[in-house]
């Protein structure tokens, strides 16, 4: 199969209270890439632009001090250098901290899965275990924690991943009492995983999380009668009809164009991804 890969990633933050937050996008985005964004602030309501979807179940948890939201989308090539996320309600305007990643080799049609857990008064936040509904596959797991220092002490000055996950990104909040974020990752051929604890420099409270990203090549068959090659195709509208049957949610349209371009008569659909038989 092959694991999804974090091809580029970047952190950003708002250093002053605002209700309009600029989240920097990762470099090198191409149509078909999977983009994931993690956002943390103290506002009651966090609103992403149109075109961004939630995880399954929703990566959205507010512990009363910090509010975290995760979103994803399939890149179309129309993305700019940043997006604007709005905050409103209680505790808005606010500071914020964010992280975004460009992931290649991922199934950008299947909703990534997530789990969250709040923690209080500890130096070892523990991202929860996750059992992925897709079962045994080559997943990319992204875990992390965001602290909120309600006592307005200095944010954690260091993070580390003592388990088998690998450190990827760490950022202190823009000022004392603000959020501080750590991201780690691992690729595993499993159906479930427990990332283990993360270590930070001070005692504080916040939210820990884990994401599971599906691989692009997902063969549900126990044996394949033919070899398959992933068919290159541009971003397309949802739905499909005509000789390919009734409209199916989540299936790219214009399969006729795909078949014609590849000079084949049949396009196979495996786990909502189109494939053509290899030569």
SSE arrangement, N to C? EEEEEEEEEEEEEEEEEEEHEE
Q: What is the count of structural domains?
A: 2
Residue fraction in strands: over 45%
The main pleated sheet reads as: 6 strands, antiparallel
- Poorly predicted tracts of residues: 219-265
End-to-end Cα distance:
19 Å
Annotation field: number of helices: 1
Explain this structure.
This protein is mostly beta strands and 279 residues long. It folds into 2 domains: 5-213, no CATH class; 228-277, no CATH class. It is 3% helix and 47% strand. The strands form 6 sheets. Strands 1, 3, 5, 6, 7 and 9 form a 6-stranded antiparallel β-sheet that branches. The model is unreliable at 219-265 (pLDDT under 50).
Structure summarized in a few sentences:
The protein has 279 residues and is mainly β. The chain folds into 2 domains: 5-213, no CATH class; 228-277, no CATH class. It has 1 helix and 21 strands.
Key terms for this structure?
single chain, 279 residues, mainly beta, 6-stranded antiparallel sheet, 5-stranded antiparallel sheet, 1 helix
Describe the SSE topology:
Layout: E1 5-18, E2 20-24, E3 34-41, E4 45-47, E5 53-54, E6 60-62, E7 67-74, E8 82-88, E9 94-104, E10 113-122, E11 130-131, E12 137-148, E13 159-160, E14 166-171, E15 179-190, E16 192-193, E17 199-200, E18 204-213, E19 228-230, H1 255-262, E20 268-270, E21 273-277
Antiparallel strand pairs: 1-9, 2-8, 3-7, 3-9, 4-8, 5-7, 6-7, 10-18, 11-16, 12-15, 12-18, 13-17, 14-15, 19-21, 20-21
């Amino acid at each position: 199969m092959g694991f999804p890969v974090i091809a580029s990633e970047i952190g950003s933050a708002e250093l002053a209270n605002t209700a309009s937050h600029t989240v920097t996008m990762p470099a090198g985005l191409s149509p078909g890439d999977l983009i994931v964004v993690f956002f943390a602030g103290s506002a009651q309501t966090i609103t992403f632009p149109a075109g961004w979807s939630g995880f399954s179940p929703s990566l959205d948890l507010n512990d009363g001090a910090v509010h975290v939201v995760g979103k994803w989308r399939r890149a179309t090539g129309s993305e700019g250098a940043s997006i604007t996320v709005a905050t409103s309600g209680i505790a808005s305007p606010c500071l914020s901290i964010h992280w975004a990643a460009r992931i290649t080799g991922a199934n950008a049609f299947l909703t990534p899965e997530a789990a969250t857990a709040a923690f209080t008064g500890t130096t070892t936040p523990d991202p929860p275990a996750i059992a992925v509904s897709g079962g045994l596959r080559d997943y990319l797991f992204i875990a992390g924690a965001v602290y909120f220092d309600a006592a307005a002490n200095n944010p954690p000055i260091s993070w580390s991943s003592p388990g088998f996950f690998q450190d990827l990104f760490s950022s202190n909040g823009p000022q004392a009492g603000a959020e501080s974020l750590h991201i780690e990752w691992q690729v595993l051929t499993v159906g479930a995983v427990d990332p283990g604890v993360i270590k930070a420099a001070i005692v504080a409270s916040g939210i820990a999380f884990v994401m599971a990203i599906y691989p692009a090549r997902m063969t549900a068959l126990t044996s394949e009668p033919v070899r398959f090659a992933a068919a290159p195709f541009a971003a397309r509208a949802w739905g499909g009809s005509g000789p390919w049957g009734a409209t199916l949610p989540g299936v790219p349209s214009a399969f006729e164009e795909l078949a014609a371009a590849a000079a084949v008569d049949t396009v196979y659909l495996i786990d909502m991804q189109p494939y053509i038989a290899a030569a």
